[in-house]
Amino acid sequence: MPFETPPPPPPAARRAPTFQANAGTDARQLLRALLPPRPALRHVLQAHARLAVLGLATACALPQILAVLPRLPPGGADASYSYPLALFLSSNSASAFASNHLLRVLPHPLPLSLFPRLPHRNRHSFTFLLASLSNHLDADHTVGSSASLFLGSHVHALAVKAGAAGDLYVRNALVHFYGVCGDVAAMRRVFDELPLVRDVVTWNAVLDGYVRVGMVGDAREVFDIMPVRDEVSWSSLVGGYVKEGELEVALGVFRNMVAQGLKANEAAIVTALSAAAQLGLLEQGKFVHEVVQRARMPVSVNVGAALVDMYSKCGSIAAAREVFDAMPRRDVFAWNSMICGLAAHGLGHDAVMLFEKFVTEGFCPTSITFVGVLNACSRTGLVDKGRWYFRLMSEKYGIESEMEHYGCMVDLLSRAGLVQEAIELIEGMPIAPDPVLWGTILSACKRHALVDLGITVGNKLIELEPAHDGHYVLLASIYATAKKWGEVRKVRKLMSNRGTSKSAGWSLMEAHGIVHRFLVGDMDHKDSVQIYNMLGMIDRRLAEAGYVPDVSSVLHDIGDEEKVHAIKVHSERLAIAYGFIVVGAGSPIRIVKNLSVCGDCHEFSKMVTKVFSREIIVRDGSRFHHMKDGECSCHDYW
């Protein structure tokens, strides 16, 4: 009988380390062994209990436990605050080490009240005290609070009196505090006082202070003269440009950072993805995603949600879904991004199904979740479902309807032709309706040829918001539909007299990492001759296929031939023509518009995809249009 290989011995059970050194050293070693890298309060309590069982929770070990405690959030239970106080008071060596960690752990305003009574302090005590104030301001998103500024100035004066104001860490905390307060003059004064007492943290604090108050130009000046920059410096500048709406500049800074070999941190990644999403530039967003992949950076919940949002807003909903499905862990923000993305792409049924899965998995919907679901119903014409979700929001989840929810419902009803029901909903709102809701009604009047109602609503809106150009344009369009050219001229004259001009429509197209912007009738592009030649060829082929321009959107009492010419040079047509030149035949032409696409350009684009077998994806002011084989994802319901 052959010998059988004996089974391997069972793995040894994990045992707590045993120690025979002094208690203080043992406590430090055991805490390192027992605690995760970022312990929560419960982890520390469990470790304390283990120390007590081993007889190591002595008075001299308690400061070590205090040192590993996380900073406690404000508004916590009194019991959670009493624990660090008990550790401190039970310690037989109430040292500056213990005092400083007590100041670090407790939330504002407890450190301020305890500070004068601490038996031992050193220069680092001021660092923790200032950090407590700064964290409080950050949490409350408070800028320029006079009370906080007074308290911080008082701590500053105490530091000067104690001879600690020249310490590097104290100075960094002071610069950061004044920056969080929004007092850039005081921030800069502290920064400039001792030029030799600075490090990269000091420079970053000044950079962040300028970014917080929107002074991105000053931030750039500081950035350019920094002797050393780290990933925090770069991410702060990227964030500053995004905050001020200079999105293309932000993406340029991000690319420069990567080109210089720096590893982007999560803040820079998320901010750059946000910039690409707002611009709708897929190539830029893909570049950021490639940076994540090359660095083998784990896709955290924040990065995953930002990627889903970017791909959704850049017209690649399939890539967004792929990222979403691959996320190991998803929070509400990731679900909301995916639901809202599906809605924007006209995939209302998919958005509703995902919402039901979201609820089934135990997540609780937020206000934003319902904006996405109601928008999905609106884009797909799911009137009954929309009404049901609107009631469910308040009746089951206790979420009060906000302006965005009413906006989705008014849009849903108006698109479906239920304009009177939409008006009744507005008039029955418990809050004052935003003029945007009446603007939705006005758009519906144009769509459904409700001339008399449109005239009434349009004149009402012009009185409510005399500086809003869109109301004049829609009202003039309704008059033009009814051939009331005299009224059209009156509206245009009123618009001119009030100094209101129509927002210029533009279209963006990205090719080989370069963003191209087109205006109506644009002749400024370097390839204008080629673009107009290509557009002429496209027009001829479409005419041969039976396309006839719809000139009803032209608000001028001019001949049809002139109207056709006016429509032919709309910005999205120029972008499509350029796409034919620079985008390969197998790739979709992607266009971003600032305004809604007009009816004729929508038909033109669909016809292009049919005649030339091309795919066109347009993100206009309200949704996506995926056009292929003469069809659009919106099913002409937009």
TrEMBL record:
Coiled-coil segments on the chain, per record: none
**The keyword Endoplasmic reticulum is annotated on this UniProt entry:** no
- Please state every residue range assigned to the domain named DYW: 546-638
Task: Output the Pfam families linked to this UniProt entry.
Answer: DYW_deaminase, E_motif, PPR, PPR_2
Q: Which UniProt keywords apply?
A: Repeat, Transit peptide
Q: Which domain of life is it from?
A: Eukaryota
Provide the residue intervals of the PPR repeats. 199-229, 230-264, 331-365
Q: Which NCBIfam families match?
A: PPR
Protein name as annotated: DYW domain-containing protein
Q: Tell me the organism.
A: Urochloa decumbens
